[in-house]
Design goal:
CATH topology of one domain in chain B: Thiol Ester Dehydrase, Chain A
Helix content of chain B: 10-25%
Number of domains of chain A: 2
Strand order of the largest sheet of chain A: 1-3-4-5-2
Number of strands of chain A: 5
Largest interface: A-B, 32 and 33 residues
Oligomer: heterodimer
Largest sheet of chain B: 5 strands, antiparallel
CATH superfamily of one domain in chain B: Hotdog Thioesterase
CATH architecture of one domain in chain B: Roll
CATH class of one domain in chain B: Alpha Beta
Number of helices of chain A: 4
Shape of chain B: elongated
Order of helices and strands of chain B: EHHHEEEE
Shape of chain A: elongated
CATH superfamily of the largest domain in chain A: Hotdog Thioesterase
Strand content of chain A: 25-35%
Structural class of chain A: alpha+beta
Order of helices and strands of chain A: EHHHHEEEE
Largest sheet of chain A: 5 strands, antiparallel
Helix content of chain A: 10-25%
Distance between the termini of chain A: 10 Å
CATH topology of the largest domain in chain A: Thiol Ester Dehydrase, Chain A
């Protein structure tokens, strides 16, 4: 059961250095492609990205999911700290606001905070509750500029 | 060359182009696990999921969100995407390679409609509602995105 005294808790920051190869690898994964020549080239080729008006290659829209998973200790320590039961856990919602572009060489620092915890009665099951935990992460670049704001809703069945 | 998408040319109610993924295989899941760093065995190890009575591994929800992201940025330029959010509603099982009939449950179809045109922060924007479902109609997620247009 989620520990509701943890609302407001801020997790230790995680740091992720953005690599060009990782951007292309992630683009291949979400595009279901076998090689980086097959993905949209603004994700893989610096020259093509510049020709399209970008400073360098850019990541696909959900790339920041790797920052926590590869740059932090992953989700597990966070869930344990928040008292969330892994066996009953579902990923309910995910939302991103894109505030600044991200390029290879950027060093991103993410800080995640528990902003809300609440219960909602299950449909058709009076007295049975689902528990919701809402996390907000601010992801800044090496200049301290906010690049992405992420909001994650976790659900315990 | 696809036709440029402009604020003037788009109207509330317009549909974004329908996007259809390749049928998701276990190999796609492994590739996504490595790329994202999400190594929850639920997504690649059948001996793990069978302990919970599940017949097969299931896709990462974030992989499906990534596919939806591709559908969106096939239509609007990546640099114009301002906000993208989804609510997950159904699990996705990969196709079994020895069962061609299982393709449909593993094929993600992304559809969307413009629901709002507005100006904010000095930009002209559209908000679209989106849905991802498999070919059998099973809804995987619903959500919305906001993009700036010139």
């Amino acid at each position: 059961m989620a520990d509701k005294t943890k609302v407001g808790m801020v997790f230790p920051p995680y740091v992720f250095e953005v690599e060009k190869g990782k951007i292309a690898e992630f683009a291949m994964a979400v595009s279901q492609k076998e090689s980086k020549g097959q993905v949209k080239q603004i994700y893989a080729d610096s020259g093509e990205a510049r020709a399209a008006g970008y400073k360098d290659v850019i990541p696909t829209s959900t790339f920041q999911t790797c920052f926590l998973l590869w740059g932090g200790g992953g989700l597990m320590p966070m869930l344990e700290a928040a008292g969330i039961n892994l066996v009953r856990l579902l990923h309910g919602e995910e939302e991103y606001e894109y505030l600044r572009p991200i390029h290879p060489g950027d060093v991103m620092t993410g800080v995640t905070k528990i902003v809300e915890m609440y219960d909602r009665e299950k449909k058709g099951k009076p007295g049975k509750f689902m528990e919701f935990t809402v996390l907000e992460a601010e992801i800044r670049n090496q200049r301290g500029e906010l690049a992405i704001r992420a909001r994650t809703t976790l659900v315990e069945r | 060359m696809k036709k440029a998408l402009t604020y003037e040319s788009i109207n509330v109610g317009d549909a974004m182009p329908t996007f259809t993924s390749d049928p998701i295989t276990r190999t796609h899941l492994v590739r996504y696990a490595g790329a994202s760093g999400d190594f929850n065995p639920l997504h690649h190890d059948e001996t793990f999921v069978k302990m919970f009575g599940m017949p097969r591994v299931i896709s990462h929800g974030m992989f499906v969100m990534g596919i939806v992201g591709q559908a969106i940025t096939d239509w609007v330029d990546d640099k114009n995407l301002r906000k993208f959010g989804v609510r997950f509603s159904g699990m996705t099982e990969p196709m079994d390679l020895d069962d061609p009939n299982s393709k449909d449950r593993a094929t993600i179809v992304v559809t969307g409609n413009v629901v709002e045109k507005f100006e904010a922060d000095g930009e002209k924007k559209i908000r679209c509602e989106i849905k991802a479902a498999d070919k059998l109609g099973g809804v995987k997620l619903t959500g919305s995105f906001i993009a700036a247009l010139s």
